[in-house]
């Protein structure tokens, strides 16, 4: 029942997703208990080290420069600012810090060098360090690995078919190529997606098929519920029903049995009871802290109260994989190649994205 498979079909996954709920929960919980301690949950803190001004047109994202969302842009944080935030996260119970920058892709230069210093600093604080920086080349991934990176996040977002209805400024293959570049190092992969963007259940199944086909499968898979932000193309989407979230978590657990399934964006809309059912269904990771990049998130103290109520314990760092070694910048084997990779820019247009872009131009004057 918990065998890792890389040959799932969308029809098989959809059949699991649509099972009677109690049967689905029982199967998912059984798989979960075979692979994981059901009373341990990994806690991550998401830190936006560079906010806003992104050139992409992702329909869900308030950080896209072309939309008017009242998100305040911030330049790249300093290493000392990051260190202070990480120490607070560690004290509150997090074992991992994920640093996110609103970039289309990593560019060699002083800013990337600063990120590498941040990675060294966080790893030396005995915290798992994850980055989500957009597309990366093989050499850039190797430089991150040398600095002590534990995980790299690059979500597939949705199925390949529905992806084209959400994003037009880069292709699905770019995401797969980035994950492939990360896999050429010892860095683990974090990749998942978002539900509630108007996709069908078949699209949700398609995303899980794409993730399960990766070999090895991602070590971590975030399942996000869309937080519809005013000014984005998806601002009018209805909130995700908790039952859809529970089904998605349970199905992910069955299809990706060894993966840590993370409850990510949208938890502020979930009751404790709803989150408890997600944990029962196989979720064993959360993002803590009052903000996920730019969207709200439950207070960490409330999360710890919930953990106590449910008898859950935060996972200690480096439980699943040994701590990476940090190579000092001066001893680094991999140097900047000053690469200028040509990531794809599909030429199709998404009507609602274009409409939001035009609205943003008007509002910005």
Helix-and-strand structural type: alpha/beta
Largest sheet: 10 strands, parallel
Helix content: 25-40%
Low-confidence spans: none
Structural shape: globular
Determine Rg (CA atoms, Å).
Answer: 19 Å
How much of the sequence is in beta strands? 5-15%
Q: How far apart are the first and last residues' alpha carbons, in Å?
A: 58 Å
* Order of helical and strand elements: HHEHEHEHEHHEEHEHEHEEEHEH
Q: State mean pLDDT (0 to 100 scale).
A: 90
| Alpha plus pi helix count | 12
How many beta-strand elements? 12
Would you summarize the structure shown here?
It is built from twelve helices and twelve strands.
Question: Topology of this protein?
Answer:
Blueprint: H1 10-17, H2 21-35, E1 40-50, H3 79-91, E2 96-101, H4 110-124, E3 128-132, H5 138-147, E4 151-153, H6 160-163, H7 172-182, E5 188-190, E6 193-195, H8 201-213, E7 220-225, H9 242-255, E8 260-263, H10 272-281, E9 283-288, E10 291-292, E11 295-296, H11 300-310, E12 313-314, H12 351-364
Parallel strand pairs: 1-2, 1-9, 1-12, 2-3, 3-4, 4-5, 6-7, 7-8, 8-9
Antiparallel strand pairs: 10-11
Helix pairs in contact: 1-8, 2-9, 3-4, 5-7, 8-9, 9-10
Question: Would you mind describing this structure in some detail?
Answer:
With 365 residues, the protein is of the alpha/beta class. Helices cover 38% and strands 15% of the residues. Strand 3 (128-132), helix 5 (138-147) and strand 4 (151-153) form a beta-alpha-beta unit. It is globular and about 55 Å long. The termini are far apart.
């Amino acid at each position: 029942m918990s065998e890792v498979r890389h040959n799932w079909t969308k029809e098989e996954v959809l059949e699991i997703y649509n099972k009677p709920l109690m049967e689905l929960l029982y199967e998912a919980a059984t798989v979960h208990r075979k692979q994981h301690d059901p009373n341990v949950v990994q806690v991550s803190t998401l830190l936006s080290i560079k906010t806003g001004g992104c050139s992409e047109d992702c329909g869900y994202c308030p950080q896209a420069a072309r939309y008017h969302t009242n998100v305040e842009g911030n330049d790249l944080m300093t290493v000392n600012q990051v260190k202070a935030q990480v120490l607070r996260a560690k004290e509150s119970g997090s074992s991992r810090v994920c640093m996110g920058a609103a970039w289309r892709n990593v560019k060699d230069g002083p800013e990337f060098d600063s990120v590498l210093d941040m990675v060294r600093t966080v790893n030396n604080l005995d915290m798992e360090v994850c980055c989500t920086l957009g597309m990366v080349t093989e050499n850039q991934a190797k430089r991150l690995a040398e600095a002590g990176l534990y995980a790299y996040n690059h979500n597939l977002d949705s199925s390949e078919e529905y992806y084209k209805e959400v994003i037009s400024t880069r292709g699905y293959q770019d995401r797969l190529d980035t994950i492939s570049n990360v896999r050429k190092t010892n860095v683990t992969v974090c990749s998942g997606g978002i539900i509630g963007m108007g996709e069908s259940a078949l699209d949700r199944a398609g995303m899980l098929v794409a993730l399960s086909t990766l070999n090895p499968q991602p070590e971590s898979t975030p399942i996000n519920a869309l937080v519809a932000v005013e000014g984005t193309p998806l601002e009018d989407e209805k909130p995700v029903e908790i039952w859809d979230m529970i089904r998605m978590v349970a199905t992910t657990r069955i299809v990706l049995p060894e993966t840590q399934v993370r409850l990510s964006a949208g938890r502020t809309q979930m009751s404790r009871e709803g989150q408890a059912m997600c944990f029962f269904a196989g979720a064993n990771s959360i993002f803590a802290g009052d903000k996920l990049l730019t969207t709200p998130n439950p207070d960490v103290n409330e999360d710890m109260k919930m953990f106590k109520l449910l008898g859950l314990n935060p996972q200690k760092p480096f439980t699943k994989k040994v701590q990476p070694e940090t190579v000092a910048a001066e001893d680094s084997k991999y140097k900047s190649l000053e690469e200028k990779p040509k990531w794809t820019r599909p030429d199709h247009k998404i009507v609602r994205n274009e409409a939001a872009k035009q609205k943003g131009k008007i509002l910005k004057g």
